[in-house]
Amino acid sequence: MSTIQRFSGQLALITGASGDIGLAVAKRLASEGADLVLLGTNGDKLEKAKRDVAVSERHVSTVICDVSDYDNVEAVIAHIEKNIGPISLLFNNAGYQGVFAPIHKYPPEDFKRVIKINLLGAFYLIRAVSPYMVQRKFGRIVNTTSMAGLQGPPNMGGYGASKFGVVGLTQVSARDLAPYNVRVNGVAPGLMGPGFMWDRQVELQSKVGSQYFSSDPEEVKKQMIGIIPMRRLGDIEEIPGVVSFLMSEDASYITGVTLPIAGGR
Ligand code: NAD
Q1: Contact by Cβ (8 Å): 148, 163
Q2: Which letter does DSSP use for residue 253 in this model?
Q3: pLDDT at residue 194, as a whole number
Q4: Which positions ≥6 away from 241 have C-beta within 8 Å?
């Protein structure tokens, strides 16, 4: 883990902070000097994440917030800005994978839920945080999209559509906020594991009964890994350094891009 203190004096807000990727990025940014606000929906999990981050001398706060509720998001951001500190860095990362079903059977209610959390949630965070960044003429935002937002996997209609949306949101936000020294980029993890999302998608893809995947989960694993040029899953630990890079001044001339972290494409 890096010991460069390049985010010293900066406050990073991380959504989905008690999840695998959010927590790994939280640890990395804290190790590089950032103070943190961990945002999630479950107080116990957030407290555990706070203990796990545990970098001495870093200030770590937790806030409970449903990213799919704009009033909640706006109030929480106002609270952070007033009582904790100015948000310089936003890792816009909360997400929900949705059900697995072909589009002609996809449950409309679940599609709506996925869009609300992944796309509206990402917009709500940018909408609520960016006015403060614009006013201060400084901000670094990284959105977590997915390879599903660049290639469109089968049986993941809600998820794929929402993540394509986040790629577009990243480009538009980057253009709108460029005049104010606010950079907006994205990361697109591919198949990361081990972890909850990998296990869940292997199991659910095997149950869908499509032409793309076997009904045997072990075979599904081989099929999925077989289409990755590097022929292996990504490790969650291969994500934080990329997020940190995009937030840092090493990426000072980069905005509006979504970087795949996917073993090739
Ligand atoms: P995870 O399930 O461990 O974490 C997701 C987090 O989002 C959880 O902490 C959850 O509580 C939070 N969340 C969900 N709905 C929320 C809501 N309404 N309000 C606030 N928080 C909410 O999964 P992860 O692997 O850490 O995923 C993080 C991000 O990375 C997600 O956006 C996901 O789509 C994306 N992603 C993950 C993978 C992967 O393989 N793990 C691959 C590509 C993209």
Answers
A1: yes
A2: T
A3: 80
A4: 2, 28
Spatial separation of the C-alpha atoms in residues 245 and 242, rounded to whole Å: 5
DSSP assignment of 95-130 equals ------B-GGG--HHHHHHHIIIIIIHHHHHHHHHH
Residues annotated as catalytic (active site), given as ranges = 159
Mutating to test ligand 1, I would choose from 38, 93, 167, 203 the residue with most ligand atoms within 8 A of its C-beta, which is 93
Q: What pLDDT, in 10s, does the model give residues 20-51?
A: 999 999 999 999 999 999 999 999 999 999 99
Query: Which part of the chain has CATH 3.40.50.720?
Result: 11-190+236-257
Find out whether 20 and 45 touch, Cβ atoms under 8 Å: no
What is the CB < 6 Å shell around ligand 1? 15-16, 18-22, 40-41, 66-68, 93-96, 117, 121, 144, 146, 189, 192, 195-198
pLDDT on residue 2: 53
214 Cα to the center of ligand 1, angstroms: 26
CATH top class, domain 11-190+236-257:
alpha beta
Q: What is the pLDDT of residue 146?
A: 98
Nearest of 69, 181, 167 to residue 130 by alpha carbon: 181
Q: Which atom of ligand 1 is nearest to the CA of 234?
A: 40
The residue contributing the CA closest to ligand 1 atom 23 is 19
Positions in the chain short of pLDDT 70: 1-3
